[in-house]
# Entry
Amino acid sequence: MKKIIISICIVALMAIAYSCNKSINPPSGTVYLDLPSKAYTYFNKESLSFDNTLNEKATLGRVLFYDGHLSVNNTIACATCHKQNNGFADNVAFSTGFEGRLTKRNSKSILNLIGFDSFFEKNSIYSVGQSLFWDGRENILANLVDRPITNHVEMGIDDANTIPSKLVSLPFYNSLFKNAYYGDSTITSARISECIAIFMASIQSKSSKYDQYLQGNIMVLNASETNGMNLFNGKYNCGSCHHLQTNFYTMSDFKDIGLDESYTDLGLGNITQSTVDNGKFRVPSLHNVALTAPYMHDGRFKTLDEVLEHYSHNILNSPNLDTALKSGSQPISMNISTEDKAALIAFLNTLTDFTTIVDPKFSNPFKVK
Ligand code: HEC
Ligand code: HEC
# Structure
């Protein structure tokens, strides 16, 4: 009897382990990497004087991004919470990480993290040109070993320096590191960071309908979408915070939009330790917003309609409510009509870039034979 119970337990554990592994990191032995033999053309500017192995680094970064071995029990990869078909955000309010722990905030898209040209002109992956995370606590993309792997507690890695020794035992990394570092296959946490940063930097999305409009093709928006854009920038003044004209679609401003009368998450205030910053969160880029539900730093709204309902009737008098959302000392109600809502949503849908989310360059390279 005991034996039967034990074997049932073992089978169950194996099934759990397999199902955890399956999505991101298939079991070893059957795994192969779907990478082209030639370097990818991620980068417009090919032979960059300071590094002509950017494509090889991005290719390695892509493998690392999808590899569960970066987490302590080999099951959680960056891509677990930054899903390509959700515009590299997650489709739940709080993502599930290591041992079922939930993230404290809603996952963020990692598209267009850098101003592409300035990134290379500055000759460095150190300055992103905008702050990262909902509270802006980071602006150095290459600090990823410290931040996303270890600070994303959900990945369960306390010491990033333990990762290289795990990766050494995997057959495919030797040649990937060699290609990316001029024949030197040494695996270090700094290199891991650098390559993931370069991979993320390569995920540039610039082919939404609205991007085409910005590039001068003004006929691309239909009447309702154009109306929505005008309402966004005019009547409802959404554009005073969401600066969609820049290639980040955001300016790293932090605002309190009256979600709560008393704060459960202090946001920027946690970082600056200043009460005037409590409840302020980074104005999110609305790129691919139709794909990144649920919304807000805590994923409280399931649909764009619910977001508009907030601005329409539910702005609360929070202590640091932004003046743009106030009239005197009271919160405004935008009273957005049904027709205007439909137009605003039609416009927000033009921010979706359907090519990046299916682009094989950014997809999971792990395939099972
Ligand atoms: C368990 C889920 C989870 C995993 C795994 C995860 N992330 Fe995140 N990521 C999040 C959440 C949640 C946020 C927002 C947190 C915040 O702002 O406080 C975030 C934010 C980010 C940001 C900031 C984006 C921006 O626009 O501000 C970057 C960059 C990022 N993650 C990269 C990574 C990388 C690289 C990995 C793998 C090493 C990774 N993430 C793994 C959940 C996850
Ligand atoms: C005062 C500045 C401000 C104004 C005005 C403003 N927003 Fe926002 N918006 C923000 C901030 C800040 C957030 C994130 C708040 C949070 O999560 O705490 C946000 C979040 C959103 C989100 C959710 C995005 C995501 O990824 O979760 C959408 C959609 C949105 N706003 C659309 C609009 C529209 C449409 C209007 C006009 C009707 C508007 N905003 C007006 C600052 C503003």
